[in-house]
Amino acid sequence: MSRRLSREVVFKALFQIDIGQCRVELALRRSLEDLNFSNDEKQFIEDLVSGTVEKIDYIDNLIRTNLVKWELERLSAVDRNLLRMAIYEILYRKDIPHAVSINEALELAKKYGSTAEAVGFINGILDRVAGESFDRKS
Q1: For residues 16, 18, 20 and 24, what is the CA-based torsion angle, rounded to 10 degrees?
Q2: CA distance 103 to 124
């Protein structure tokens, strides 16, 4: 399997947690159902989901500070959860280049996004967050 498919599973689990108020364990079990991932891939998925949920308040506040005349709660659930996943990767997964995290989120936005503008919107926010993350390191 691939990291792209792994991220798709992460996104689906985060979506279930957000919209369905599903517990992390149940969302992971449902999302992994009928898929054959290696142990390393399962660990990657579990780490991204649990890490994103653990840091969700900080991530959501970061999204809010990068929204212009918009509210986090008004974002589509697809956009909100893709942003959460990618921002978690950007901030906490030093083994993944920012460009990869951004590109993967954009590909998923193209597949699941509600509007054509969603891809550009997500790209803009992730670029700002990645730049701020880089600035904090300097």
Answers
A1: 60
A2: 12
Higher pLDDT, 74 or 96: 96
Assign 76 to helix, strand or coil. coil
Q: What span, in angstroms and rounded, lies between the C-alpha atoms of 96 and 60?
A: 21
> Which residues make Cβ contacts (< 8 Å) with residue 70, sequence separation at least 6?
none
* CATH number, residue 108: 1.10.940.10
Q: Which structural domain, as residue segments, surrounds residue 23?
A: 3-137
Residue with tokens 């990068």: 66
Q: pLDDT tens digits, residue range 5-45?
A: 999 999 999 999 999 989 999 999 999 988 999 999 999 99
